[in-house]
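Check these lines:
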Amino acid sequence: MKFVDEAIITVKSGDGGRGCTSFRRERYIERGGPDGGDGGDGGNVILKIDRSKRTLFDYRRQKLLKAKNGQPGQGKQKHGKNGSNCTIALPPGTIVTNEDTNEIIIDLTDTEDEYILAHGGMGGRGNKRFASSTNRSPRHSQPGIPGIELKLKLELKLLADVGLVGLPNAGKSTLISSISAARPKIADYPFTTLTPILGMVDPPFGEPFAVADIPGLIEGAHEGTGLGISFLKHIERTGILVHLIDSFQIDPASPLSSFNLINNELAKYSQTLAKKTQIVALNKIDLPDTQEKVEAFKNALKNIRVLTLSAATGKGVKELIKLLSSELKKSKK
């Protein structure tokens, strides 16, 4: 399934059914009087979190979603049937915005399971409701109240505990496949990963946590270069960033060039991203001639702990998982 993280839809709650104007007319019954029933209420539009969903793909084609209208009232004081609700199932982390006013209506996180977005219109009252001592034969009833129509923008931001960032071919896909059951496409050319990949990690001790592989970060990503502008927003919800660097590509003369490039892009997109906890990890240490480059990097970044690992062979991966589990535990406290 194609990864879709934005969609525009129109929703409408149901109209209320009209009330009935009717009089009881039966043989041998005098003064039957008014007996028109009320109309039914229109259905609501309800947003619901569906944790099995990972994209907004379904709503790229469904442009109009409507709840059912209430049925009109009938004679013999029969009330119209209420309209059925329209339930919209969305993945967790979806932000729902009013497209016309640009106002955020709700951010569907794990704290909200259901939310009534638009109430259906009330059904109109039948003429039985208007009978009184001074008006025994009312000949009018009420129309139903129309439902509410809204144009919405749906925007998905992945809910992950850890985000993997780095230049293309840093080994993020290989790493997420080695620590979780996620199986992204892996190849030795840039932009192999075209969509964010989410995987669950089950550490030996502590609670499982979600890791997101965020693709497409290169110089100018915050302005739309490459794929980064499409996926930088998915890092905003992560608790910790793992900054993965290809140790084989480090230039000993300028060891921090790629490290600084990615951090500059994060800062230009959002100061919130720049302030997130980062774990720096040098990958591909199994390749030849990387020892000198690793030492040059560590010497240039003396005040920050730097992990070394090989996602391909598994060396150092357990230490990374252990550190991530520990850092997440601290952040929750």
User: Anything to note?
Assistant: Residues 220-228 have pLDDT under 50 and may be disordered. Helices lie at 172-179, 228-231, 257-269, 271-274, 291-300, 317-332. Residues 317-332 form the longest helix (16 residues). The chain has two domains: 1-156, 162-332.
